[in-house]
Design goal:
Blueprint: H1 7-12, H2 17-27, H3 38-50, H4 56-65, H5 70-73, H6 81-90, H7 94-111, E1 124-134, E2 149-158, E3 163-171, E4 190-193, H8 200-208, E5 212-216, E6 223-229, E7 237-245, H9 250-253, E8 258-264, E9 271-276, H10 283-292, H11 294-306, H12 317-340, H13 347-357
Parallel strand pairs: 1-4, 4-5
Antiparallel strand pairs: 1-2, 2-3, 5-9, 6-7, 7-8, 8-9
Helix pairs in contact: 2-7, 3-12, 4-6, 6-12, 7-12
């Protein structure tokens, strides 16, 4: 095992660099570049994510303080903040989108056998968006309201591993429901979403594609009961009904029957009403599916807290999207490392440890507590355990 590499260099070794260079060549990212290649740009921005840097000056100063180790981190020379700013402004953000998509594919394969605890063979997704507020005078392209600017991250999260399978970055004005038009619908998959996505024409298109949805009913929905299924109220399920829509437009947009499940949440005491086109699963599973949707809310909370996407290093649309997509790449990369090294620690713990050890020269597995890491075969296990002395 090579201990001459810094932890940062070992982390970068998990990336598919051949694929990266093909993507860069496709978009002409390194054409005419002399000072900072796309690979070095990615490393500098990934360093900023992993060590919680807040500005370009911050990145420059921290890397310069470790100038003796820059070559071993993959940098040919110290990174100037002006050069990094120009790269973020001018290099096509679609390079980073394509690379993040490749990492997402790799991560989803690793996590596809994860158990959701629902005894389902279907892929389960959670669809939602989060708004990142910006200053209108600094980001005039990100239209949201008369006096505010914002960007939105529309995210489809694969609940196995909490890996985003689809992300679309838009200005703040794009309504959530339009994200349904951008998805490549997967037959047999289950899409969970909140009431903001209730558009019966779009939901019927999802139904015709052979996919399933679980959402909440709006209070003003007009409908009538076709028949009811017996329920066990001790589970919290008050009623399980097949319904048809009565609204003049809604019954044309969704002519098929729907399933309506009324559930009393014992934890909060609230009564929730779910709508779905999945007619065979138990009503309790429908309720559990919607509860699992909250993983996407936790995903948004996590990336806002731990990745650098609330303070942007540039003001153009290209620079903002570049930073968001590299942030997503870092999130997925840490998830890949967690799975490949069979680490029990949370992503939060992994990032906290990496943020203070990136320049250390040790095997990557040794950076984490022994109880949270399964070492590969062949690694010596005869070191003393401090906690047994």
């Amino acid at each position: 095992m090579n201990t001459g590499k810094t932890l940062f260099a070992q982390i970068m070794d998990f990336l598919p660099w051949k694929t990266f260079h093909r993507i860069v060549a496709r978009h002409g990212g390194d054409k005419g570049v002399r000072a900072l290649t796309c690979a070095e740009q990615f490393r500098a921005m990934a360093f900023a994510q992993l060590t919680y840097r807040e500005s370009l000056r911050d990145i420059e100063a921290c890397l310069l303080a470790q100038s003796a180790k820059l070559y071993h981190m993959g940098f040919r020379a110290p990174v100037a903040r002006s050069t990094l700013a120009d790269a973020n402004e001018s290099r096509d953000w679609r390079i980073w989108e394509a690379f993040a998509s490749r990492l997402i594919m790799q991560a989803r394969k690793l996590y596809m056998s994860e158990d959701l605890g629902l005894d389902l063979s279907n892929t389960v997704y959670a669809l939602d968006s989060t708004t990142i507020d910006l200053c209108l005078s600094v980001f005039p392209w990100a239209h949201f309201r008369t006096t505010k600017a914002a960007v939105k991250m529309h995210t489809l999260l694969d609940l196995k591993g909490s890996i985003p399978s689809f992300i679309h970055v838009s200005d703040g004005k794009l309504h959530d429901v339009h994200a349904l038009d951008l998805l490549e619908l997967e037959p047999g998959a289950i899409y969970t979403m909140d009431r903001g996505y209730v558009d019966f024409a779009r939901l019927h298109a999802l139904h015709l594609a052979g996919a399933f949805f679980v959402t909440r009913a709006k209070s003003n929905m007009r409908w009538h009961r076709v028949y009811s299924v017996p329920t066990d109220r001790t589970t919290g399920v008050i009623c399980d009904q097949r319904i048809a829509l009565d609204g003049f437009y809604t019954r044309q947009e969704y002519p098929a029957q729907l399933r309506r499940v009324r559930f009393n949440d014992p934890e909060t005491g609230k009564t929730l009403i779910f709508l779905t086109n999945q007619m065979t699963l138990p009503a309790t599973t429908i309720c559990a599916l919607y509860k699992n949707r909250w993983q996407v809310e936790l995903f948004f909370k996590w990336i806002k807290q731990h990745l650098r996407i609330k303070r942007f290093f540039g003001t153009s649309e290209n620079a903002v999207k570049t930073q968001i997509w590299i942030a997503v790449s870092v999130y997925v990369l840490v998830a890949i490392i967690k799975k490949k090294l069979q680490l029990d620690a949370s992503l939060y713990t992994l990032l906290q440890i990496l943020s203070v050890t990136l320049f250390e020269k040790m095997p990557l597995q040794q950076a984490f507590p022994a109880s949270e890491c399964i070492l590969p075969q062949g690694v010596p296990r005869n070191q003393l355990n401090l906690f047994t002395i």
